[in-house]
């Protein structure tokens, strides 16, 4: 079983690497330039030991020191070192540009895909985990990719270059080095196979921890109100404990890489030193050549340490990249047909024919739902929690697509329309408020950015929000934070109502639209709603049945079915399910 898992992780690592290379491909010219500069850097770096050997031979000669020749060699060493530094700086600059361009492309792709994902995916995945993939995982990936660019190219070229130079000086000693090389490769390979799995588990668990933290911070009032702190801390400790375990194992495997390869490299250096000393004693090579050879042996083994470290970082980077690619590979929302209808100004006629829908296939929610709504009708949806009221709204807005049957607007299946034009014909006020960081004016004009200040103010007056807005420090130019900042829940909802009143679309959806407003303001807003709904098709979801008495038709839902239908008085006379709900609500009064 463990063998299968290792094979799977290895295959996944290869697939992820191929995906990364596909993102690097557009920058292949820069990559080729980087490779050329890496080659220049390596050749110049490896030329220095030859010059050093020549300098040594001019000092350890039989007789006097050749100062003139030594000075010439030293000048060449200085020039070569300066050129090496320049080439290395340019190479690092290009590598940085390649890395951050690739990271920018992947992050843009991931964010773009997140906006294309169906709500079913967003609803079933913690927001903290999605944030972790786009922020933390891509940052982790960029660090590994940058290290790969800066050290992997030069490391491989250094190994090849030193072998060429060593074989040119003394083939037998170079052969000793080559024979001992597989030991270092085996050690690095053994460790790399075990690090990918641990780093992947580390990334996943980090996403869980981010999701929990985001959830607890976003709902701190609820956490404190229900005294959930201890249980939240227990959950945090459990996930944090797993993260610590995975991180410790990942760090353990990565930390033994350098000592293990250094041990093998020391063996190589010692072998070169011993064989080279015997060769020098037997006049098979000069002391200067031995000095150069020892320098090459050191430079030859050094990249193995660096490459083994790079491999570890790349495993971490690939594990993080795999999580990002999982998000990118998620199936996007159903694409619109090429000849999709652009709905201009809907009349408001809506038909639901034999609609079936379920969030989870094995748990049917709405079955064979039929409804015909004429333009300008006010339709109220009532029923117990979980009966499918808000689901009907989600289907009308096409946040979810029906599993069976069809929904038609003005005789056309809404799946044949562009989502943008369909939703432009709806105005929504929900129990949950939608406010963004910006001025109050911008938030009200969210659906009509071109609206004048006078139009915004008139909409706010209709929503009875004008008075509290004028009392704020900068009035309509007051900046509020994400989700309304310090505004009360009622004030936030009044701003959302003003937003709809500014646009006045042909179809309105009011889902507990006045749930957070005081009774006196609610009466005024209901009067404004009544004026706004004149001539417009309206869908009203309400638990307070007093707010829907004037509806043209009330649909009583139960377990995804319409069990009763009619006006308020008619349904009371039937003395059925609606009457039970109504009487239970007003029994106390």
Write the layout of secondary structure elements.
Blueprint: H1 2-24, H2 28-59, H3 67-116, H4 119-124, H5 127-169, H6 171-218, H7 220-225, H8 229-255, H9 257-281, H10 287-329, E1 350-357, E2 366-373, E3 378-382, H11 389-396, E4 404-409, E5 412-413, H12 419-424, E6 426-429, E7 438-439, H13 440-444, H14 453-462, H15 466-470, E8 479-480, H16 489-503, E9 507-511, H17 519-533, E10 537-541, E11 553-558, E12 561-566, H18 568-574, H19 577-586
Parallel strand pairs: 3-10, 3-11, 6-9, 9-10
Antiparallel strand pairs: 1-2, 1-4, 4-5, 7-8, 11-12
Helix pairs in contact: 1-6, 1-10, 2-3, 2-5, 2-10, 3-5, 3-10, 5-6, 5-10, 6-8, 6-9, 6-10, 9-10, 14-16
Give an account of the 3D structure.
There is one protein chain. The strands form three sheets. The chain has a six-stranded mixed β-sheet with strand order 6-9-10-3-11-12, sandwiched between helices. Strands 2-1-4-5 form a four-stranded antiparallel β-sheet, with no helix packed on it. Mean pLDDT is about 80; it is low at about 1-10. The two termini are about 65 Å apart. It is of the alpha/beta class and about 600 residues long. It folds into two domains: about 20-330, ABC transporter type 1, transmembrane domain (ABC transporter transmembrane region fold); about 350-585, 3-Layer(aba) Sandwich (Rossmann fold), CATH 3.40.50. The chain has helices spanning about 1-25, 30-60, 65-115, 120-125, 125-170, 170-220, 220-225, 230-255, 255-280, 285-330, 390-395, 420-425, 440-445, 455-460, 465-470, 490-505, 520-535, 570-575, 575-585; strands at about 350-355, 365-375, 380, 405-410, 410-415, 425-430, 440, 480, 505-510, 535-540, 555-560, 560-565. The protein is about 65% helix and about 10% strand.
